[in-house]
């Protein structure tokens, strides 16, 4: 991932640790050109854009339409226009798993090349969803990084069929944002904040770029002069290349701001190790911290990691709290209701 630093002077924007930053990207110009070529549409063809009147389609695709993500609607549109039996078969309900596999790594332009269609510029523009902002957890504290908002962004790049494909917003930030002005806004968090109590212990589970808000939390607690203990679980694939903020986090651990730093690098040994296993290994201490009133935070991948961490937390509570599974689940639910178990997952 890369760190991006936004200067907020004169922007009128302010944030708190735990908030997210919304970024309005523009699409990749090469992808726009590929799409127009696949559809055999002239770049200058006028299309209506919400609140802006008619714009050349090249401009609409660059700034106002989601031209990457394949939606159910766009699949249906291309199936109907192409008359492809192959695509129609793939869209049958019983082929859902095959479709998911087939779509892996593909973008809309790949669909157009596999199933050519003829369509007017206006029809095509109307068929696409509006380009949406991307939200990133802010990885700084306004008390420590004054006048700045930091983001920690994993840059998505891969090849499909020998052609480069990129994440819409991560590639925009990495390749095209430069030092110019970028349209951003602050997305306020309802509850995802460091503990209000200066002496409240804090446990953070943030593998990968999920570490982002916790860097902000730690800087915030230091700037506030909090005395509460802090424990971070961080994991990635390889310590040598994937230990984000290594020097900073090890420095915080060395000077006592980070009481405990538990690491899980999944590919550095024969058996894969993840943060949830570190939680279980250190379950007795984790339970003791929770008994002392610790707040428990999770940030990152919702599909797998957050679910596995939730299961590990319940296991720790059951084992070290001497409860059955049902009571442990209720104990964790109560932790959540009391705003002591907070998640920022995506």
TrEMBL record:
Presence of the UniProt keyword Amino-acid biosynthesis in the record: yes
Enzyme Commission number: 1.8.1.2
Domain of life: Bacteria
GO biological process, one term: cysteine biosynthetic process
UniProt xrefs under InterPro entries: CysJ-like_FAD-binding, FAD-bd_FR_type, Flavoprot_Pyr_Nucl_cyt_Rdtase, FNR_nucleotide-bd, NADPH_Cyt_P450_Rdtase_alpha, OxRdtase_FAD/NAD-bd, Riboflavin_synthase-like_b-brl
Cofactor(s) it depends on: FMN; FAD
Keywords: Amino-acid biosynthesis, Cysteine biosynthesis, Electron transport, FAD, Flavoprotein, FMN, NADP, Oxidoreductase, Transport
Protein name (Swiss-Prot/TrEMBL): assimilatory sulfite reductase (NADPH)
Species: Thauera linaloolentis (strain DSM 12138 / JCM 21573 / CCUG 41526 / CIP 105981 / IAM 15112 / NBRC 102519 / 47Lol)
């Amino acid at each position: 991932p890369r760190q991006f630093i936004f200067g907020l002077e004169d922007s009128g924007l302010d944030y708190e640790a735990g908030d997210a930053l919304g970024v309005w990207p523009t699409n990749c110009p090469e992808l726009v050109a590929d799409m127009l070529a696949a559809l055999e549409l002239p770049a200058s063809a006028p299309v209506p854009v919400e609140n802006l009147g008619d714009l050349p389609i090249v401009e609409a695709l660059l700034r106002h339409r989601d031209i990457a993500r394949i939606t159910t609607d766009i699949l249906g549109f291309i199936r109907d226009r192409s008359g492809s039996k192959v695509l129609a078969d793939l869209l049958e309900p019983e082929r859902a798993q095959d479709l998911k596999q087939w779509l892996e790594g593909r973008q809309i332009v790949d669909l157009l090349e596999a199933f050519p269609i003829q369509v007017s510029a206006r029809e095509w523009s109307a068929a696409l969803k509006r380009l949406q902002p991307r939200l990133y957890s802010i990885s700084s504290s306004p008390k420590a990084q004054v006048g700045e908002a930091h983001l920690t962004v994993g840059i998505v790049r891969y090849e499909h069929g020998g052609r480069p494909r990129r994440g819409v917003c991560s590639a925009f930030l990495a390749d095209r944002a430069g030092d110019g002005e970028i349209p951003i806004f602050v997305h306020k968090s309802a509850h995802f904040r460091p503990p209000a109590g200066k002496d409240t212990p804090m446990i953070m589970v943030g593998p990968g770029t999920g570490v982002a808000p916790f860097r902000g939390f730690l800087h915030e607690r230091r700037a506030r002069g909090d005395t509460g203990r802090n424990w971070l679980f961080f994991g990635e694939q390889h310590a040598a290349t994937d230990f984000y903020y290594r020097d900073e986090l090890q420095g915080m651990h060395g000077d006592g701001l980070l009481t405990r730093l538990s690491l899980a690098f999944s590919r550095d040994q024969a058996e894969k190790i993840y943060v949830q296993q570190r939680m279980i290994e250190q379950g007795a201490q984790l339970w003791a911290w929770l008994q002392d009133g610790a707040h428990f935070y999770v940030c990152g991948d919702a599909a797998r990691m957050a679910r596995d961490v939730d299961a590990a937390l319940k296991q720790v509570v059951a084992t070290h709290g001497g409860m059955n599974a049902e009571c442990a689940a209720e104990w964790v639910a109560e932790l959540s209701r009391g705003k002591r178990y907070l998640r920022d997952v995506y």
